[in-house]
Specification:
- By secondary structure, the protein is mostly helical.
- Helices cover 69% and strands 0% of the residues.
- The protein has a domain of 98 residues.
- Keywords: Coiled coil.
Amino acid sequence: MREDELRAAIDEAREILAEAARMANEQARAELARTFDAGDGRGAAFECVRVEEFLKGKGARTLDAERAARELYIGDAYFQDVEKLMVQFDRLERALGGVPGMNVGALVGRCTEVATCDIARATANLLTLRGAFKVGKISAMVMDCPKLLMCDDLEDRIRRTQACITRIWASESDEDTIYAISEEPNLLFTLCDLPIFAEDISVDISELPMSVQGACVVVARARVRRRTAFVSNHSSRVEALVFATRRFKA
């Protein structure tokens, strides 16, 4: 079934399910559902709409849920049954739900590969992230870069990306590089694999691909904000100390 045909069938399915939702009688709903004949593709549309509604109920945005439902149906026969997706979601939520701010529904809506990821690998990678970054940053990092849950060399990528950042900005400390990665986690999959870093020389930002330069500019701005905030906070502490000292002397 072509995707355009599936889209048309999904639109029809939504209309019928909306009518069913207006009917309080469960038997009427079941009869309407049975009007979908898998042979003409409407059964597929019905299942897609069920998956879509499930994802929205789990926190996915409407457009993300629509796209993800189609991708899951077309890409993985296992998830053509929403009940099986529910089981997988339960596993994912148990594995990932302990991270503050983590919304598994929104995450799957953004990247359907998460639905089929190796949960043991995802759990191990979360522990790696917890060991390197502030816990409050992790959910935003994963939402921005779902690959963090699925790669099998995360620790090595963190180390290599830190080294690459110091090749661009030699004055950066370990803390600075970790902060930079937390602001732009996709650098873990774009920066450290660039051939230019294979040579043991300093690297100017202008030598990087434009797509990576953009991320590095964001990092540079974040560095300025962070250091400005540090100086401001430090100055406030000094002023408070001076004020307290003067009061004590008085």
